[in-house]
């Protein structure tokens, strides 16, 4: 089973970060799809270091959220829970936000380049 999901839609809200007793931090963004007839709304959660990927988002932005689909059964309540866990997000028409692979960062990547401020067209 492929558990990777991409959801493209508009950020409705960015909920406040929650901290749990075990030290886990979680923040949720609510995204609504662009389907005219039956728009869908999804809560997408960012855990631990992935919270930094959504810190600059705000309502009204269009994003493509790359998520892992996770499910678990809560036996005591005989319920099944499904979670969309964020690992990468792209502002449509903007910049991709994903966790950098530190092993691929070079010294040249860390130097300010005046050409970075140039518009590519």
What is the fold's blueprint, element by element?
Elements (H helix, E strand, L loop, with lengths): L3 E11 L3 E2 L5 E9 L7 E7 L14 E13 L4 E13 L4 E3 L23
Brief write-up:
The protein has no helices and seven strands.
- What sequence of helices (H) and strands (E) makes up the elements? EEEEEEE
**Rounded mean pLDDT score:** 82
Low-confidence stretches: 99-116
> What is the number of helical segments per DSSP (H or I, 4+ residues)?
0
Query: Which structural class best describes the helix and strand composition?
Result: mainly beta
The level 1 CATH classification is Mainly Beta
Helix content: under 10%
Largest sheet: 7 strands, antiparallel
How much of the residues is beta strand, in percent? over 45%
Number of domains: 1
The CATH homologous superfamily name equals Nucleic acid-binding proteins
- Gyration radius, rounded: 17 Å
The tally of strands reads 7
| CATH overall fold name | OB fold (Dihydrolipoamide Acetyltransferase, E2P)
Distance between the termini: 41 Å
What oligomeric state do the depicted chains represent?
Answer: single chain
Which CATH architecture? Beta Barrel
Which descriptor suits the 3D outline?
A: globular
Task: Please characterize this protein's 3D structure.
The protein has one domain (4-117): Nucleic acid-binding proteins (OB fold (Dihydrolipoamide Acetyltransferase, E2P)), CATH 2.40.50. It is 0% helix and 48% strand. The protein is built from no helices and seven strands. Strands 1, 2, 3, 4, 5, 6 and 7 form a seven-stranded antiparallel beta sheet that branches.
